[in-house]
Each structure stands twice: as C-alpha cells, then as structure tokens.
C-alpha cells in the first residue's frame, strides 16, 4: 500500500532513494526546460519566488558576493539561478548523475559553481569552507530520517551571522489524501520513527518512468522541524505559510502562475508550503 508505515534502517532506505533519484535524472533533464538557461538572465521559478524573501534578511538586502551552499541541489537549476542572482555557489547532492548534469548545465550557462557529492546528513565533513547562506528548497526534508543531524550540518556550515533558508511542502498538506475529492487526512502528521513506503514509477516532472520505483519518506511536523533548528542553536527570524506549490500534489489542484493550488474555494483552508529563515548568531 502506498504510504504505509514500515520499519527500515536508514542505510537501506537511503540506498533505495538514491537508486530512484538516479533514475529521475534523465527524465528531469528532459522535462526541466534546461534550454531556458541559454538566456543569461533566466532564473528558475523556485528562486524567483525565494529570492525576494531571502534578500530581506541579508546584509544590504542583497545576495551579491555571498557564499551560498545549496543542500539537495539535484540537477542544479536552482543552484545556477542563485549564482545568477549574485551568490558564489556550492551545490550538494548524493546523486552522481544529478551532479554530472548540474556541472554540464553550469558550463553551458557559463556559471561558476562548485559541486560536492555527499549525503546532506554528512555535508559538513565533505564541503570545504563556511557560508553566509545555507539554502534548501523544495521537497527536501521528507527524504531525511534525522532532522537533528540535518540541523547540525546547517549550523556547522554557516558562518557566525549566517542565514538559513528553507521553503518546503507543508506537513499539514502532506498528511492529506491526494486522491480524495475533498480535503481529507490520510497519512500521519506526526512521525513515529517509521518510514512511509511508496511505489511509484512516475516522477513529479515529465512523462517517463523510473526503473527503481520504491522510495521511503518520513513525516516531520512543524514542531519537529522548528525544534531541530532551534536545538541546533539557530535563531528564528521569519516564518510564513503559502497557498501554492511548484508541483501538483493532487490531481484536483489547478495551475496558477509558477505552480499549483487548490481550487479557489478551498485555497484558504490548508497551507501548501512553509518558509523558515533562521540565523546563526
């Protein structure tokens, strides 16, 4: 059953997820519209949305010249977009083929970037240097079992005074039945340590299918996400919730500028994303 809770150790789950994400790379390379980056002014929709929020919390309200580490960067479209927005970028991901595509795209786009292959939970030991900004967005932390370990990497990567930014799918949204004809909960909002097992040959972009369809995710309530960051020593400076998503969570969602949303009559009933900005003092 899709979304069923199972006992599985982290290494086995991580291995299955890596196979799935490796399979996604050629599908996403074809579906992400990479030709758009031939225009030297093009930046991704995700960064178009996140940049004005992040900039408000940076010195001089600008990213220009700041060192930015992008965790779980996949094929690099957002990382390259941050570079075009003024940052000196390092992209981190666990997928060899994803980083190969990212590096090729950066070369094609004539953007300087550093790429590091490592698990996000081991990022500090693999990534050189300290950063003014650590960034992750979107659809990232559901793949991680241990958010305390994740938050510790973020703090260790940041310089004093550095800023962490995350926008991701809202835990309340992820508890909903994506196939129901009304807003109905189906999956746990609170985690119990077990993973949710999924079997799905499709991905969120493109029409192709993957060979390794089984993946594992973990539900993380807002209290756990915020708690991990606060326990690690970060100071919360901004929190927000949004009504749109960059992907179609449910077939009932309708297309809106730069994403998808519930039908208008339901749009104020449930959040789709959350955004957190936190600082290392």
UniProtKB/TrEMBL annotation:
Q: What name is this protein filed under?
A: SAM-dependent methyltransferase
What are the GO MF terms of this UniProt record? Answer: methyltransferase activity
Q: Which SUPFAM superfamilies match?
A: S-adenosyl-L-methionine-dependent methyltransferases (SSF53335)
Q: Which domain of life is it from?
A: Bacteria
Pfam families found in the cross-reference section: Methyltransf_12
Residue ranges of the Methyltransferase type domain?
Answer: 71-164
Q: What processes in GO biological process is this protein linked to? A: methylation
Q: Per the record's keyword annotation, is Transferase included, yes or no?
A: yes
Record keywords, A-Z? Methyltransferase, Transferase
Q: Which PANTHER family match?
A: METHYLTRANSFERASE, METHYLTRANSFERASE DOMAIN-CONTAINING PROTEIN
Q: Which InterPro entries match?
A: Methyltransf_12, SAM-dependent_MTases_sf
The organism of origin for this protein: Microbacterium phyllosphaerae
